[in-house]
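Database export, one record per block. Field names are fixed; values are copied verbatim from the stored entry.
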Amino acid sequence: MIRRFLTNFFRGRNGFDDLAKCAWWLTILFMLLSFIPGLAGFICQIVVLALIVYTWWRVCSRNIYKRSRENARYLERTSALRRTFRDYKTRLSMRREYKFFTCPTCHSRLRVPRGKGRIQITCTKCGNRFSGKT
């Protein structure tokens, strides 16, 4: 019964997009910071309340066109930061099988299998050759 009510309520509404998720994580961060005693904690509590209201306003909004434009702008502005974290996560998951080098000329990332000893590495972008120990 509750599930049917929530399904009907959120039909035609924006829902949790990437900007709402970011605002929710900021809410959690400021909630943890609100335990600081004094004026800083009070300000963090006000920010938490404002972020909760903003997040639920976005989620329950029926103006999907405007909310998706705002979300697209957010994704566009944070694409470089998200790409950096995604690349770091990829390198972290492959660190046992591969060693990563940076080309001294064009600064592109190169992936070489581990355990090959000292080898000559050729950059795929600029063709520069340099040596490295895997």
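Remark 1: The longest strand covers residues 98-102.
Remark 2: The chain has two domains: 14-77, 97-133.
End of record.
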